[in-house]
Design brief:
Gyrase A, domain 2; Four Helix Bundle (Hemerythrin (Met), subunit A); Rossmann fold; 3 domains; seven-stranded mixed β-sheet; flat
């Protein structure tokens, strides 16, 4: 793959619509367009960011009337010359315009290549590039806000700050390596250790957002669990707002899992209704119960539904952070023996307790101190893996410093941490470190 050629692609979803957008990016974006674009209002030279009306044509005549906008490098999304063509949104006409561009000398863009070029040309860092897809896939307001915050560079800025402090710390250690007769004195060692501990704390704060980031991007896998006829399917239907599952007084009605996605206070929640947990000789029901237990093991959150009007049965009640105990049928009264349990009182019949359930889910996932406006940074799995490595290397470097080991040992650990942090934002450049050493310590002068 080369990034010096000109690429083209349809940037709107394939299908019928009012409009479609076809995007070109590369050094030949304008020269490719000119032979197939005619406009009585077009200037002799395209003016950046000015929309021009005209028509796309082939040898047989007009293909479509279009609007063309030119974005001149480097002031474009990719940092290259970019042309966007807005045409009518039919499948055939959109494909015909794209074919003409490909015949004129462009190449079909690979998936994500426009954003990849934006990253390679320094328009965005790697975290911002990832946020583009998060923005497209966002299903809730909270997920959308988190994606926008990352796209705005909040995560990248935080990591850049961490990287700068790490570079400075490493530069001080490298300075001692260049002077073998000098040992790191206690005062300097304490300052270096304080910096390392400060870095560890900043990484800890970012790592603490990993679970929230996973939930916002992929949804909270929530299993509705309980014995037959306690109201699991009724709860699913009530939360969805329509009848999705069959509700019956006959035990064992639900044989397989049913999955739907809802929005609870900005959190995408993947609700999974399951077969009633009990012993059964029926082969189909037994298979459903087996799948129920499998879903419980894989769940991020379990909503255990019980009949609150009856005494607790001799089965396990989940009592941990990843579960919510829901006492259904509270309109019939709550049995005294449930008073010892921290539970949500609920009634599918009276439709009461919904707000309490929403709050309980929020507290389990986001924590009581987190508010909608606070979600500025939420790392993904790749970030988490890199930052965890950086944290472990910082801990090892701090330990080497405390034990009075040679600066080379400390340097190795800090360099590894620097590479791990740099991998998150796509910056791994040893020249940065050399520049910092020469500018701050004037070594060799």
């Amino acid at each position: 793959m080369t990034f010096e050629d000109t690429i083209a692609a349809i940037s709107t979803p394939i299908g019928e619509g009012a409009l479609a957008v076809i995007r070109l990016s590369g050094p030949d974006a304008l020269s490719v367009l000119t032979p197939i674009f005619i406009s009585s209002s077009a200037p002799k030279k395209f003016v950046p960011r000015r929309v021009i009306f005209g028509r796309i044509h082939d040898v047989a005549g007009k293909v479509d009337e279009v609007l063309v906008t030119y974005f001149q490098a480097p002031n474009s999304y990719t940092g290259e010359d970019v042309v966007e063509i807005s045409c009518h949104g039919g499948i055939l006409v959109t494909r015909r315009v794209l074919d003409l561009l490909l015949l004129a000398g462009t190449r079909m863009a690979n998936p994500g290549e426009f954003t990849q070029r934006a990253f390679l040309n320094g328009k965005i860092d790697l975290t911002q590039a990832e946020a583009v897809m998060d923005l497209i896939r966002a299903q809730t307001e909270l997920a959308l806000r988190a994606a926008n915050e990352q796209l705005a560079g909040h995560l990248g800025n935080e990591l850049t700050g961490i990287r700068e402090l790490l570079l400075t710390t490493l530069a001080h250690v490298e300075a001692y390596i260049d002077f073998p007769d000098e040992q790191i004195d206690p005062d300097t060692g304490k300052k270096l250790l304080d910096r390392i501990l400060a870095l560890e704390n900043r990484l800890d704060r970012l790592l603490a957002t990993a679970d929230q980031g996973r939930v916002l991007r992929h949804g909270l896998r929530t299993v509705i669990y309980g014995a037959p006829n306690v109201g699991k399917s009724s709860l699913l239907n009530l939360l969805l707002g329509y009848d999705r599952a069959i509700v019956s007084e006959v035990p064992g009605t639900t044989r397989d899992t049913i999955e739907e996605v809802i929005n609870i206070r900005g959190i995408p929640v993947r609700l999974i209704d399951t077969a009633g947990a009990r012993s059964s000789s029926d082969l189909l029901e037994s298979e459903g119960i087996r799948r129920t237990l499998q879903q419980v093991k894989q769940a991020d959150l379990v909503i255990q539904v019980v009949d609150g009007s009856k005494a607790p049965m001799d089965f396990e009640v989940f009592d941990n952070r990843n579960s919510v105990l829901l006492l259904n049928k509270c309109d019939l009264g709550i049995h005294p023996r449930w008073s010892q349990w921290n539970a949500v009182w609920f009634s599918c019949t009276e439709k009461t307790g919904l707000e309490d359930l929403n709050q309980a889910i929020w507290d389990r996932v986001m924590g009581e101190a987190v508010k909608l406006a606070d979600v500025r940074v939420a790392i993904n799995a790749r970030h988490q893996a890199c930052l965890q490595i950086a944290k472990e290397l910082l801990v090892a470097g701090g330990r080497s410093l405390q034990e009075g080991k040679s600066p080379e040992f400390v340097s190795i650990e800090l360099r590894g941490a620097l590479d791990a942090v740099g991998e998150v934002i796509g910056k791994i450049d040893p020249e940065d470190l050399l520049g910092r050493i020469f500018s701050e310590f004037c070594i060799g002068k």
